[in-house]
Hints:
The chain is of the alpha/beta class. The protein has two domains: 4-129, Rossmann fold, CATH 3.40.50.720; 153-261 and 334-354, 2-Layer Sandwich (Dihydrodipicolinate Reductase, domain 2), CATH 3.30.360.10. It contains eleven helices and 15 strands. It has a nine-stranded mixed sheet. It has a six-stranded parallel sheet with strand order 3-2-1-4-5-6, sandwiched between helices. β13 and β14 (286-289) form a beta hairpin. α6 packs across α9 (188-204). The longest helix is centred in the last third of the chain and has 19 residues, at 336-354.
Amino acid sequence: MRPIRLGMVGGGSGAFIGAIHRIAARMDGHFQLVAGALSSDPDRARTSAGELGIRSYDDFNAMAQAEAAREDGIEAVSIVTPNHMHADPAVAFLRAGIHVICDKPLTATPQQAARIADAAADSRARFFLTHNYSALPMVREARALVAEGALGDIRIVQAEYLQGWLADETQGKQAEWRTDPARAGAGALGDIGTHAWQLASFVTGQVPSHISADLSSMVPGRPVDDDARVALRYTSGAKGGLWASQVAVGQENGVSLRIFGTKAALEWRLQDSERLLLTPKDGPAQILTRAQDRSASFRTPPGHPEGYLECFANLYSDVAAIIRGDDTHAGRVPGLADGLSGMGFIAAAKQSADRDGAWIPVTP
């Protein structure tokens, strides 16, 4: 089957997440990168495109118009820029009828998110959001177990995403934009808190109705939050907690999810991502591995570890299937609704923190 022609906005030489997306997009042969506006610096954009052997554009608006007019133009575009630069290219490509694959979170502000939502509503193209952890095999198996009632009624949900790399006044490109409220929109809350929020919602099938948040900037002078502790309430009666921190010294990428129901409990940790602990109320704990995964999301035999690149590749493969008309994959690929939910989470958490932890309803 012919690869889907792919473009990219951002991700020029030296960028972190752009290279990840390029590797993931080509891993299963479903996409071919053919064009890009890889940097806001025209010289860097051209140099980067030359290194990749693709068509280069100085501006994403020009790229959207030109590629939509070509018979061999791109059919989808990956947006891998800082948060505040997601909305403009997303709107441009959606209006051009080109599918959008956007890195998370959706945007830096609710107003930017609303612009994407309006453009998507008027477009024949689809919008996808790369919350990559939801594409790990055992996360998908956890979701299947919850959906089939293995846990009974959900009572408690605990999601965490802990890092320590911003425990000091860290320098460098990645730290610079992630701690700038104009470019990031939020600190730990947006950068990694939205991952924990989406992961919990994806597995449980429930989104909290109200939250109470305590946001801190523990590094003196930092203008964004670097530690977020959020209590969750669900309409079902379940309660939960979410902790996202980038000042947790010693933590590298501590993503975890624990769910407690009336019949059983589930526990999953990224650092042991190929194992899922299922503990029935009246029986011994069971360690499930990829051999028990029913989602067929893995690409190597069980026992041969997979991880970060592969879960991005799983999303790209699912997106390719959807673009080609197979909507059976749609339920497990994050999209605009997930992005808007994350933005609602950020807005409610900020409002709650400003009101000393008041309970605030979450609206997308």
